[in-house]
Amino acid sequence: MDGLNISWRGQPHSGKRTALHAALKQLASLRGIPFTLQTKQFFTGGTGKSDANQISTTAEDDGGDDGGSEKDSFPYEFSLIHIGFDIARMSMQDKIYLKPILQRWSTGSQVLAGNQGRASRILVFYHAHLFSTESYFLLHSLLENNFGDVSIWMTSELPVAERLSDYFIEIPVATQTLTTGRPSWSMVFEKMLQTWSQKPFPHLSETTEIRNFLYELLMRNLRWTDCVHYLLDAIFHLPLESEKKKKLLSILAKQEATAAGQTIPSYRIPLLWEALFLEIREAVSQPRIDGGPSSSSQNISKRSKVITGAAAPKVATRQPKSRGATSVSNGSVS
Length: 334
Prior knowledge:
Mean pLDDT: 74
Helix content: 25-40%
Number of strands: 10
Largest sheet: 8 strands, mixed
Oligomer: single chain
């Protein structure tokens, strides 16, 4: 079992991490070794001027002090058979952290095989659907060069990216009925769509309000891919008119980079978010009271009528002429 690359896929709070830990515990039992989860700090300090793109990877030993600070570190879990990292704690910098992680723990490390005789090192990644495109390149290279020596187990809310789908086995995890009353992102977007559906057609003055709402989402590290899927769930859940749902689904279908392992350049993120939510605001709102188009669309329609109603100007065409030949134009010979 430890020779397989496995992805537990399911909705949030469906028990993916619990299922993964149960599989690790079962594997430890097969090896005849104890399974105990422990936590250490992964420090990201120690960059120098000559090596700005590299980071040091030092685990905090008991009673040791490596000079790192808490703001430059995040916790990771480990046991005698695995090492686990949470991609959600990497603050959208997973491609920077993943390279030293793989360099340190993927090759040249001893694995406690126990009674099994031979075993693979298991790297665990939680919330793997948050991986960037560059991170999937690194994982692909790792699996190609160390196939059979390293196994990757992960939890994800989305299917494995196409680049790695041939390496992984997906285990679906059913979503149980949630008993918690905490607000979720789905509830936030449902409330937003419900409020917008009762408002009249938007004006230009609402742009600032929508932009402030978007930056509140970005400050809470909501990813573009998650946002699109939360909106999709909210559209299907709310009792909207079929015509509005069709417009909203058409808007979401046109969005780019909405699958796992796809990233958007940072300078384009605010532009895409604003364009998406402005389109949604117009599509879900109440129709105009006068039932007519906007002033800008009226100008465009009037201009198109003038152009189509007027006679089209004649455009003189020049015929190709061969060497030594004559051409006739408007009755004259040249």
